[in-house]
Amino acid sequence: MKIGLMGFGRAGKAVASIILNNEKYILQWVLRKSHILEHRSVPEFFGIKSNEPGYLYSIQSINIKELMDEQPVDYIVDFSTSNAIYEYGEAAANKKVKIISAISHYAKKEIEFLKRLSENTAVFWSPNITIGVNFLMLAARFLKKMVPTIDTAIIEEHYRQKENVSGTALKICEYIDVPPSEIKSIRVGGIVSKHEVIFGFPYQTVRIIHEAISREAFGNGVLFVADNLKDKEKGLYKFEDIMLPYFQHS
Asked: How many Cα atoms within 13 Å fall on the side-chain side of residue 66?
């Protein structure tokens, strides 16, 4: 199965390295804004031997439709920016290429566009594509349903330069039906990503914590999604759609 990757920032590089080390998937190409390293290969960038092409292209130099015609892929994985979906979305959907988006936040306009694309192909979106944090959200939702009146707080920790409130934390709020005002944000050092949901009972406390210690965790999440999306028909999917069947079959 061939993958085209959008974006080659810190997360994109980590995801690319995971794909390159997986035998079931091939990193066909990477599309980014920058001209730097254009037409060089990702294996060469990492200094590893690989038979996978993984060539770097700039979106300023090549048309995405032409790229997909010349180098077809089964999936497009997006770790770029929220508006990139307009650059590749229609071309991918028309070719029935499955879309896996890990963009942390989309506006309502982009979400509606994803829904339109999903009429032609399978589209998956998660603001945090790590397996662990999505398990956290499901577990938190189950406990909140069991005890709706329980006291709840959400703490999110990220690297010092991150400006906005975590999209994952906002998604947790939505999942467990609490206001965003319950989020406490911490910005220090080089923390990759840590989310904690605290449930306060009168005589006990439950803490559900997920911490990504390396951005390679995003790559593991991408491959988990790809494995579970390969037989899906067109439609818009989220992590809950592919995780819940594991609970039902346990």
From this structure: 7
71-74 long-range Cβ contacts below 8 angstroms, 24+ apart: 71/2, 71/4, 71/28, 71/29, 72/2, 72/28, 73/2, 73/3, 73/4, 73/28, 73/29, 73/97, 74/1, 74/2, 74/3, 74/98, 74/230
Q: Residue 47: CB partners within 8 Å, gap ≥ 6?
A: none
Q: Which residues are catalytic?
A: 158, 162
Domains and CATH numbers, the chain: 2-125+216-248 (3.40.50.720), 131-212 (3.30.360.10)
pLDDT digits (tens, 9 = 90+) for 54-89: 999 998 889 999 999 999 999 999 999 999 999 999
Note the pTM of the prediction, 2 decimals.
0.89
Q: Which band of pLDDT confidence, cut at 50, 70 and 90, is reported for residue 250?
A: low
CB 29 within 8 A of CB 4: yes
